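ok posting inputs for the glycyl-adenosine-5'-phosphate job
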Amino acid sequence: MSEAPTETTTSVKSMDDIMALCKRRGFIYQASEIYGGINGFWDYGPLGAQLKKNLRDAWWTDVVMKGCNGQLGPNGKPVSIVPVDTSIIQNPKVWEASGHLAGFADPMRKCAGCGHFVRADHLWEILATASDWHSSLLQEYTPIIGDIDSDRLFKWAKTKGKKLAPNLALVKNPEVTMSWLATRVNGQPNVPVDVKELTQHIATEQLNETGLQDPCPRCGGPLGEPAPFKLMFETYAGLTHTEDNKAYLRPETAQGIFINFKNVVDTTRVAVPFGIAQTGKAFRNEVTPRNFTFRSREFEQMEIEFFCHPDDSKAWYTFWRDWRMQWWQELGLKGDNLILREHDADELAHYAKEGAGTADIEYMFPFTAPGYGELEGIADRTNFDLKQHAEHSKTKLDYFDNTRGELAKNGQPKGERYLPHVIEPSAGLDRGVLALLCEAYTPDPDRASGVYMKFHPRIAPIKAAVFPLVKKDGMPDIAAPLAAELRQRFGHLGTIDYDEKQSIGKRYARMDEAGCPFCFTIDSETLEDQTVTVRHRDTLDQERIALDKVGDFLAEKLDL
Ligand code: GAP
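and the output
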């Protein structure tokens, strides 16, 4: 997660409130909830499943079927993309070739005090956000200048600290720790001490005279050296659980595309430059799944591998980076909340080489604010993957391009054989849904619900609701057939809700929380002049339109 580049005007919403709404309205539930849940897994309820489908469909339609909505590529031609749907389990050699078996691991550190594991590269983030003892310590000691209030720290160590961080050096042996601190830190007057430095100082120093050690977020004890923790889920394909039958759940959908590159070239009429796209589940045994669905162990990706000539990779990288950013903005992620961030040289993935572009599209989630969390990565993967698979499978994966090469005597190009380079826009569907939920969440004390979900009509799970004002006077007899008619016309896009119970105010409030953009109400005027009330979610404006024009009105609003 990255820091905010500039000061932002966005007010931070409460993640607890958003999660409560998600549960209350049936967007997202904890997986296996009635059994106490399972860490890192989530279930989508009726509204969430449709919201997720709408986002996946928008991606599929705009990227794959409409070829970047008709925008021409840097070669001045339409962008050509074809879809695939590949297996979650592949031959394990795929993961050997891709580098996942050897390298797809997180660095983990084990606490010698309590046995807790912590991800080495997340340690300070976790300490800052989730460690009770750390926050309590900070309350006691707020370092402004290099001066340690030893009385306060002593008191904290012997009381609260003892309970919260039984293995922290300051707590185990306050005298030794404080005398150590006094010489090391107070010995250098007016040197500012930052929080991280202070924590490190007091962590475990009396146990280890030779150097500083990082503290365990749970108990303050000494953390061991980082060791790799493999992220791939293992399973067995076959009757016996032997090494021979060992298989893996895919950690990304991308490899299913690379290993089918030759199939697609041989069996369709695509020509480089072209892309192959796929949506589907990916699995990672994340060490610290957290922040709702942001880091889960089972999640869905929307990935494109775009194959091009090596000379054109820079131009296609820029094209995809900018187009993908524009796409998220058009779905409603706007303003300061969405940024495009080019990677620093030290962030490059194993497949990216220096000079090859890599950028993230990042969203300011309530739990990352004022920083940002990755929504999609756009990477120039060079020819790394095709090369690896060609070598490991001993299959020729190079491409013969008959539009290139020197001109022959007949004036036609002789052709050129090369291994295409790949630009990969790789988006997380669950993270996309989470960003849309956070963005849509709009507190409004003037409404009965106190909040409404301001979804773009295109992705709103409920497209419209039809209500008889009261359940009598023949109103349901008009409302129910109208809902049925709209369902036949718009059902492929989302839900058309029909509800005749409770007061109209309560029904509107429910639709506000569900993010339904339009409610059509049949009332006494309808009986007289065949008009209905349309209620607009965002403005709360009400207008009357003809009953027989409701379908056309909705079609226009949904931009059909
Ligand atoms: N093929 C490249 C690749 O998989 P990645 O950055 O590891 O790259 C791509 O993943 C996207 O998948 C991320 O930008 C993120 O949106 C999503 N993603 C990755 N790990 C995730 C997790 N544990 N939970 C939810 N989404 C995840």
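notes: Residues 46-65 form the longest helix (20 residues). The chain is about 35% helix and 20% strand.
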